[in-house]
Amino acid sequence: MEKLLIAANWKMNKTIGEAAEYIKDFIPRLAGWDRVEVVICPPFTCLAHLSEALQDTGIHLGAQNVFWESKGAFTGEISPAMLLEMGCRYVIIGHSERRQIMGESDQDINRKLKSASSSGLVPIFCVGETLQERETGQARDVVLRQLQQGLAGLALQDLVIAYEPVWAIGTGLNASPTDAQEMCGYIRESLGMIRDQSWAAAIPILYGGSVTAVNIAGFVEQQDINGALVGGASLDPEQFARIVRLNTDA
Ligand code: PEP
User: Fold this and answer.
1) Which atom of ligand 1 is nearest to the CA of 168?
2) CA–CA separation, 223 and 238 (whole Å)
3) What are the start-end ranges of the H helices in 91-138?
4) Are 188 and 224 in contact (CB under 8 A)?
5) Ligand 1 — pocket residues by CB below 6 A?
6) Which among 10, 229, 243 is the best mutation to test ligand 1's pocket, defined by most ligand atoms within 8 Å of the CB?
7) Catalytic one among 95, 104, 129, 133?
8) pTM beyond 0.90, yes or no
């Protein structure tokens, strides 16, 4: 894989004014650093502003959700074409908060993945087990089911997978780099079985769950971890810039 990929998931945080302040502070902190592809996924309301503010910076824009239909009577929903028009390249699909709080099923996620990728967006497809599933030895089975059902019938397109153990999201309890590698290795193996090995080898797999500037380096040095999806620590431009710079002084 050419470059690491580090994506910020701002969740339901930041007004347009706050986003503008953030970008002014963040961009200069990345000067001279090109080892990482950076993606920012703000709330929908900030997309138009960030699309302009990120022009010529090399930083990509992503959304946090998308609907599977292209238009019509779907109050409150946003289509892939609308995101593309806003300048989005990426879209997060299947985040555990949407699975758990909004009740999204593997079938809903499959529809979203199909619609987003056939429109030309690159999905950041999140999978991961709960604490109870991990403690009862079901982590691999759960993640395999999410992958198989999410990717069912999907044509070979650009895709990013984010392995996000639910118990590590927003809790400060990150997985250990070796546990994360074990699951990301299993995910790559499963992608190889679902499609083929050469496709699987080229898919970026991110780790997500309480990533900070202090622990990022340990994750990205693992063989099957190609970057990170960062929630809480991406909200502060200084912290997120340290993560993107892999906490080096370079
Ligand atoms: C996330 O929401 O995708 C996430 C990884 O959150 P956090 O970094 O806060 O655990």
Assistant:
1) 10
2) 27
3) 96-100, 106-119, 131-135
4) yes
5) 9, 164, 169-170, 208-211, 229-233
6) 229
7) 95
8) yes
Q: Whose CA is nearest to atom 2 of ligand 1?
A: 231
The pLDDT value given to residue 89: 98
Q: How confident is the model at residue 174 (pLDDT cuts 50, 70, 90)?
A: confident
The CATH class that applies to domain 4-244 reads alpha beta
Do 9 and 231 meet the contact criterion of CB atoms below 8 Å apart? yes
Q: Do 130 and 173 touch, CB atoms closer than 8 A? A: no
Mean pLDDT of all residues in 78-86: 98
User: SS3 letters for 43-92?
Assistant: CHHHHHHHHHHCCCCCCEEEECCCCCCCCCCCCCCCCHHHHHHCCEEEEE
Residue 189 annotated among the catalytic residues of the structure: no
Residue of 169, 212, 239 with the most ligand 1 atoms within 8 Å of its CB, for mutation: 169
Task: Tell me what pLDDT residue 46 has.
Answer: 98
- Of all protein residues, the one whose alpha carbon is nearest to atom 6 of ligand 1 is 231
Domain locations along the chain: 4-244
* Mean pLDDT of the region 208-236: 97
Confidence of residue 206 (pLDDT cuts 50, 70, 90): very high
Answer whether 136's CB lies under 8 Å from 173's CB: no
pLDDT higher than threshold 70 for residue 231: yes
The rounded percent of the chain whose pLDDT value lies above 90 is 94
